[in-house]
Write a structure and sequence with these properties.
about 180 residues; 5 strands
């Protein structure tokens, strides 16, 4: 799970960077799927992936790494409202690695679809590291996928509290 606080006007760019970094680290650590050969932690033909350069957008890099490693991903989104899924589905062939996504904006969707514990929602609120972890685990079970990623946060302009400002975002990862 990755927690970060970001400014409202940079939410889109920063979240894309953070999710890309999380997926890249996971893929580099695990190499390719079993049966595809041991890469010693590196993807075939690469020393280290270059993400978001002038030749390749961040979502293209994530898509490429997922495709090359043979891994699948599923996304559970709250504050981003499906934006992460949108970015990945804009890449041709995304059905090979993106198994599905859920926009669980309400607490009822988080509990009913993703299996988030209602007691955790009552105690910590929907914007917490624990909820992000539960959402990621839930989407991974639901699809099922190699990687489950979730995002929950305060997108604004309303909904902020003194302890949870606009821009506070948690990203969960289950792999």
């Amino acid at each position: 799970m990755l927690g970060l606080s970001i400014k409202r006007k940079r939410v889109d760019q920063e979240l894309r960077c953070e999710v890309t970094a999380v997926c890249t680290e996971l893929l580099m650590e695990q190499g390719t799927k079993s049966g595809a050969g041991d890469t010693g932690g590196e993807l075939p033909g690469q020393e280290a992936p270059r993400l978001g350069n002038e030749q390749e957008e961040l979502e293209q890099a994530v898509a490429r790494l997922l495709w090359e490693s043979g891994r699948t991903i599923a996304l559970a989104e709250s504050c981003s409202g499906g934006l992460l899924c949108h970015y990945l589905t804009n890449i041709p062939g995304s059905s090979l690695y993106l198994l599905g996504g859920v926009v669980a904006y309400s607490n009822e969707a988080k509990t009913g679809i993703l299996g988030v514990d209602p007691a955790v929602l009552m105690e910590e609120g929907a914007v917490s590291g624990t909820v992000a972890e539960m959402m990621a685990a839930g989407i991974r079970r639901l699809c099922p996928s190699d990687i489950g990623v979730s995002i929950t946060g305060i997108a604004g302009p309303g909904g902020a509290t003194p302890t949870k400002p606009v821009g506070l975002t948690y990203i969960g990862l289950e792999a």
